[in-house]
Amino acid sequence: MRYLPALGMAAVLMSLASCNTMSKEECRVADWAVVGDTDGAAGYDPQSRFADHVRSCSKSGSVPDQTRWYEGYQAGIRRFCTPLNGASTGEAGRTYHNVCPAETAADFMRGYSLGKRVHDLRSRINSLNSSVSSSEYEIDRLYDEMKKAADKDRRGIRDRIDDLERDRRRARRKADDLGYELSEAERDLAFFRQNPMAQLSPGY
């Protein structure tokens, strides 16, 4: 991580950050070391986060104290960049902004990778289950449609139902397969939380 250069202040004023991070009143009374500490502990990217604060506070005429904020950020990032927090961050599906110092990044990433695997598998299973539910709903609708359809149209409806049935079976099988992977990933994650340093051993 690098300290924001002085000339960068002009650039962050032009930032296209999409949302306000602080209210006008918060900007006026902010202890920027505390704000930086909070941002670091949350794992925010320092440049974009500080740019967001500058943008938000420009509306109140306040100028964030970059030095104080960065000092706080450095303290907060140390609490963020732990193996167990990496696991929690990954499991929650939050984006990692490559903010951890070199001496803690590897440990953090080990936890993050295990947690992210669990999150991704859960998301894929949920997506497949949603697809199954959508197929079942459409199958029921087509059966109702077929009851009212003319004889010449029933074959086409039947073919669409058959296609949906095949899709539903494939999705269910895939969800079941991923369920086994998820169980393994959850066991790995649980073991890591009990033994975070053991995960660093070669070939684990």
From TrEMBL:
Key word Signal present: yes
Residue ranges that the Swiss-Prot or TrEMBL entry lists as coiled coil: 147-188
Pfam families, sorted: DUF2799 (PF10973)
UniProtKB keywords: Coiled coil, Signal
Segment forming the signal sequence: 1-17
InterPro entries in UniProt: DUF2799
Protein name stated in the entry: DUF2799 domain-containing protein
